[in-house]
Amino acid sequence: MGLLDGKVAIVTASAGAGIGQATVRLMLDEGASVVVSDAHARRVGELVDALAKEYGEDRVIGAACDVTDEKAINDMVEKTLEKFGRIDILVNNAGRNKLAMVQKMTDELWDLVIDVNLKGTFLCTKAVVPTMIKQGSGRIISIASVEGWIGSPMGEAQYGATKAGIMGFTKSLSKELAEHGILVNAIAPGVIPNPFLRKIYGPMLDTVPKLTPIGRGGEPKEIAGAAVFLASDLSNYVLGETLVVCGGLYFH
Fold first, then answer.
1. 213-216 long-range CB contacts below 8 Å, 24 or more apart?
2. Could you tell me which of 191, 175, 97, 95 has the C-alpha nearest to residue 140?
3. Residue 250 catalytic?
4. CA nearest 160: which of 171, 170, 145, 173?
5. Residue 107 contacts residue 156 (beta carbons within 8 Å)
6. End-to-end CA distance of the chain, in Å?
7. What is the mean pLDDT of each run of 10 residues along the chain (252 residues)?
8. How far does Cα 47 stand from its chain's mean position?
9. How far apart are CA 26 and CA 47, in angstroms?
10. Spatial contact of 122 and 67, defined as CB atoms under 8 Å apart
11. Domains of the chain
């Protein structure tokens, strides 16, 4: 028996190497059927083909979806319902970041990060809520960041603003939806080294072990474990929370 037997999950930005794909794999391991959603259609197809061989074609489908495109999101939800008939879990994992000090930040950069990280979370959530209300149950889990609390001196004001916004969104939404049996929570990772972050931070990533009491950066599977906990019956009395998973980088 898996923790998520019979559940159906959508995980956004899950075709690359990182938290999204790790979450997909762990949820499949725990018995869920999963929709691999990502803006990069080729990567979606490649990962779904690989997962179908490992877990079975009946348990995994792909959806090429840009979370800033409301039509694409609605198409993803419709495809999920056509295949599986329900949506039990949404993991809002899509995110963008690009460093720029505020005096040099363009409106276009600000809007890009806000649109993907914060508005994308809103649009995906909005799309699944009617189904979850009809079911009388559901879990919405959004990936925030400890940066939403502690900030950064490296030109990430736009990123921190979105992650703090996700935490506020989570709190209010949890109060809106609890009466419908829908539990809404977030996860605040610390630094989880991956190729995407390496492109942004470069050698600065190597300083992470010096910052955490645990002595290392995190692994995607450790954030995936938190997501599975929040998606499962083990967290039935948890809502409106942001679960910090950062190796002691920040205590909340």
1. 213/247, 213/248, 214/247, 214/248, 215/247, 216/247
2. 175
3. no
4. 145
5. no
6. 33
7. 97 95 98 98 97 97 98 98 99 88 89 96 99 99 90 80 97 98 97 74 72 88 98 98 90 74
8. 17
9. 14
10. no
11. 8-245 (3.40.50.720)
Q: What is the pTM of this model?
A: 0.94
User: Among the options 159, 201, 237, 250, which is catalytic?
Assistant: 159
Strands 138-143 and 182-189: parallel
Q: What is the pLDDT of residue 209?
A: 65
CB 21 within 8 A of CB 15: yes
For tokens 């930005």, the residue is 13
Residue with tokens 């009388």: 136
- Reference 124, options 90, 95, 96; nearest CA is 90
Q: Which residues contact 207 (CB under 8 A, 6 or more apart)?
A: none
